[in-house]
Amino acid sequence: MRRHLLVPVLLLLASCASPSARQLAPPPAPAPQPPPAPTPGVPTPVTPPTASGDMVFDAWASDFYPRAVKAGISPQVLQREFAGLTPDPRVSALDSRQPEFSKPLSDYIKGVVTEGRGAIGARKRAEVQQLDAIEAQYGVPREILLGVWAMESGFGAIQGDFDVVRSMATLAAQGRRRGFAETELIAALKIIQSGEFPRSQLRGSWAGAMGQTQFIPSSFLSTAVDGDGDGRRDIWTSPADALASAANLLAKGGWKPGESWAREVTVPADFDWSLSEGPRLTPADWAARGVVRADGLPFNGADQAALAQFVAPTGATGPAFLLFPNHFAIRKYNNSVAYALAVGLLADRFAGMGPLVKPWPAETALSLADRMTAQRALNALGYDVGAPDGLIGLKTRASLRQWQKSRGLIADGYLSTAVVRRLTTEAQPSVAPAAFAPPPAQAPAPQPAPAPAATEPVTPPRPSAPGPQSSKP
Ligand SMILES: [Ca+2]
Which of 191, 209, 257, 344 could cross-link 205 (Cys pair, CB 3.0–4.6 Å)? Predict the structure, then answer.
């Protein structure tokens, strides 16, 4: 079903008869043909790219060049797109920044799910005439698509103006994300080579997410579709194309028509909080544990048959949810609970639902040092969280729940300032002295008073979710 839109696009492009349009079809471009059969792994005899003046970048480019040719990019296209190419220092800076404070989830959601966005969504919904057709074809409700559109680009207003080829080349040369960046760079070069869009059109976020629904180049190639029927997949200027492409991505990600994305629930006083982020059970199984819809209504027929996971992302004092499989389909877009909650709650708002029964609590932002101290303490107390990195992920939360349970605390896995204090006190003196040292420091050189906290870049909190799809690979 989801191929219906894609196939006409390919046919139409193929019918343009431009030699490059054929590149969209599965068989890659014919390899360049130097007389002797090229041995795999041996650089093809093509001229290295123009020197940028940056040694690391140029070394990477020479290395990348034959790989790109092997992947089907013609030497002519490479030559042209690499001419004068230099690394973008803004991309390097954005890639290496590590926020000192993580924005609390409640602040993030409250900043995103607003009256203002609800009003814009109502207006935008009326502007896209193809929503009926898109919804019918992909089975994804328009409210969810509007939620994605709002989150990804503010309904198309903020798409990013980075040259995606240059950004991906910069990230690839840096090395930290080389695999991801080279894959996306080759995908971007394929789009250019096919003639579907020129380099000047491939603008996006610093991490390569392009257009109104922020597709990375490989997702564009595999998943973007023509939603307005003009034969082009223009996710930059056509809202219908962008939304149909998002619907296609969600459908491919397992979206189940008719099911909810999540429902707010309440729990009994004696609830076993260690079930958080754990088993996937039917609503009836959850009801047997006292978990019921917060609005008192029954689950619809489709939801009753679905397996849902319990979460309370701000702990026992905040709202709790049963997450249905559609929540996880949204996370194919951006694998973050906060992001998927924001999209879903925006969608609920667009659908006319009221506010949550239990409001988001006031949270205190934790510093990177606090988060790492808590992780060191858990490790010291025998609750493995892996190498402390300041990211309070699944493993840290699971260990935190175990520790909480063993101390007779509410095992909600929520790291508050009070929990950090208690953990630090309990784990004294094993964590306190090391708490502010850089994580992998193993050289015991007793440097007298290193610059306090200078090893942790101080930057303002990120205003929004992590780079859309950028973390997907
Ligand atoms: Ca179109």
Answer: 209
Residue 253 lies in a domain: yes
Considering the domain architecture, whether residues 9 and 65 belong to the same structural domain is answered as yes
Predicted confidence at residue 97, as pLDDT, reads: 84
Distance 200 CA to ligand 1 centre (A): 18
Judged against a pLDDT cut of 80, whether residue 361 lies above it is answered with: yes
| Residue 306: pLDDT over 90 | yes
Q: Are residues 64 and 154 in the same domain?
A: no
| Tokens (6 digits) for 99 | 């926020």
For residue 240, the CA-to-ligand 1 centroid distance in Å is 7
Where helices occur in 83-163 by DSSP H, the ranges are 89-96, 105-112, 115-127, 131-138, 142-153
Q: What is the CATH number of the domain that holds 168?
A: 1.10.8.350
Distance 250 CA to ligand 1 centre (A): 19
CA of 42 to the centre of ligand 1 (A): 41
- Tell me the CA–centroid distance for residue 13 and ligand 1, in Å: 12
Centre of ligand 1 from the C-alpha of residue 187, in Å: 20
Task: Please give the average per-residue pLDDT across 261-287, as a whole number.
Answer: 97
Neighbours of ion ligand 1 (CB under 5 A): 226, 228, 230, 232, 238, 241
Q: Count up the domains in the chain and report the number.
A: 3
Report strand pairing: 292-293 vs 320-323. Answer: unpaired
Q: How confident is the model at residue 459 (pLDDT cuts 50, 70, 90)?
A: very low
367 phi/psi in degrees, rounded to 5: -75, 165
| pLDDT for position 431 | 65
CA of 330 to the centre of ligand 1 (A): 23
- Examine the domain organization and report whether 267 and 384 are in the same domain: no
At 93, the amino acid letter reads A
Q: Which of 465, 471, 472, 470 is nearest to 148 (CA)?
A: 465
Distance 160 CA to ligand 1 centre (A): 20
Asked if residue 298 and residue 410 are part of one domain, the reply reads no
Boundaries of domain holding 416: 368-427
Per-residue pLDDT tens digits for 168-220: 999 999 998 999 999 999 999 999 999 999 999 999 999 999 999 999 999 99
Q: Please compute Rg for the chain using Cα positions.
A: 25
Instruction: Indicate if 56 and 196 belong to the same structural domain.
Output: yes
Residue 427 alpha carbon to ligand 1 centre in Å: 59
> Is it the case that residue 113 has pLDDT exceeding 80?
yes
Last residue of a domain, one of 210, 241, 274: 210
